[in-house]
Design the sequence.
């Protein structure tokens, strides 16, 4: 019997070592990488995830520009499994992150670079998402940056709405992860480059959405994210008033609007949009969000790319907040002071 156990242990270690070698990750520089050649079937291909904020942004941009692409949905643990840290995807992005836009076999990394690249390489006659006026371009760049995720977002939520989003997303993680088997989460502990993520998901799996309020560090992070998001939305309200709407730069839709659409969509997925826009708060932001939802790109890039696990997560959030006012307060009421 001991010999059998040793054989199993040896086989397990050998498997882990083999997998570890083939799942090595390393950071990759952002932007267009002409020196990398990947297999491709169509001019544009997109590796993306339904829930990923950055994936949504790139999809919206492609839809606005009318660029068709080969779609490769890559699962993150939130939507089913750790496909993003398996060898096939790491051959596309050794950093293990989505989205990756591929143009004629050459990858473009990071969504803020992808939307700029797509706007520059869209076919003649495509909508112009970058203003010709230099001052407006500078404004657009500012509002792209103010919506984007950067490195170490949890410490930089004051810099952008994108950085304020991760702690706010924890509740939908908690509501989605109940559909994911524990053994799938454990794969992340073995191979994920950021061990804090599988630890977080395992914690949320064990604790559950209804007891989220007992995790003081997470509650503090959510409260901080709400305060930061309120500041960013107040600034956006002022910007919309400055140009008179309906978009951030006025009459012309731009890459800045592409970037902000997904911020509002995340708040909607969290069933928290009314906490920011309800009861007459920020009427210009409210009108802006309605304008964005009415665009064909919203249906093509968001509604048509929905995922049943996201829908399940949003529904559970609605139900749990309705049944537990204390949980609703934790997730929606911003402490003063």
Sequence:
């Amino acid at each position: 019997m001991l010999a059998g156990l040793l054989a199993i242990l040896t086989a397990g270690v050998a498997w882990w070592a083999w997998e570890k070698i083939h799942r090595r990750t390393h950071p990759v520089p952002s932007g267009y990488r002409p020196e990398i050649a990947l297999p491709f079937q169509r001019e544009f291909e997109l590796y993306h995830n339904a829930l990923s904020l950055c994936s949504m942004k790139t999809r919206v941009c492609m839809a606005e520009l009318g660029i068709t692409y080969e779609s490769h949905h890559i699962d993150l643990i939130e939507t089913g499994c750790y496909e993003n840290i398996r060898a096939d995807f790491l051959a596309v992005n050794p950093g293990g992150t989505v989205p990756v836009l591929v143009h004629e076999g050459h990858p473009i990394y990071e969504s803020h670079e992808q939307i700029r690249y797509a706007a520059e390489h869209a076919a003649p006659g495509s909508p112009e998402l970058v203003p010709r006026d230099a001052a407006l371009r500078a404004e657009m760049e500012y509002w792209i940056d103010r919506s984007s995720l950067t490195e170490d977002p949890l410490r930089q939520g004051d810099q952008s709405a994108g950085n304020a989003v991760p702690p706010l997303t924890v509740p939908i993680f908690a509501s989605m992860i109940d559909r994911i088997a524990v053994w799938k989460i454990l794969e992340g502990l073995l191979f994920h480059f950021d061990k804090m993520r599988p630890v977080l998901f395992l914690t949320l799996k064990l604790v559950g959405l209804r007891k989220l309020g007992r995790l003081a560090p997470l509650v503090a992070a959510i409260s901080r994210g709400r305060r930061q998001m309120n500041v960013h939305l107040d600034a956006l309200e002022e910007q919309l008033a400055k140009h008179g709407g309906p978009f951030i730069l006025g009459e012309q839709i731009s890459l800045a609007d592409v970037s902000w659409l997904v911020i509002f969509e995340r708040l909607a997925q969290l069933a928290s949009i009314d906490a920011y826009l309800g009861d007459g708060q920020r009427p210009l932001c409210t009108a802006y969000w309605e304008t964005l939802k009415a665009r064909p790109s919203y249906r093509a890039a968001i509604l048509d790319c929905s995922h049943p696990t996201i829908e399940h997560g949003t529904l559970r959030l609605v139900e749990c907040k309705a049944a537990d006012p204390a949980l609703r307060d934790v997730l929606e009421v911003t402490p003063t002071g």
Observations:
- The mean pLDDT is 94.
- The first strand starts at residue 31 and ends at 32.
